[in-house]
Here is the input.
Amino acid sequence: MRSRGKGIGAAVVVEAEIHLAAGGSGTALQWTGVIVAREGLMKPVGPGLMQGAAQRVIESFWKKFRDAMLSDGGLRNVGD
Here is the structure.
């Protein structure tokens, strides 16, 4: 999946891969993501700093996604 985020004077493009696999009692979700382009004000920001910040945002998204699915009864936590 390719995603582009932009704001006033800045933009980033992120490519992500999502893999689903059958697990013992459900489905395992694994993902990877990498920033492939920085534009405008984001261009001079070092890739290491940018990737670290992006990693935190992506991890937060998947945690919220998982929590929402668990609260709706759509998923079971492995080990429950």
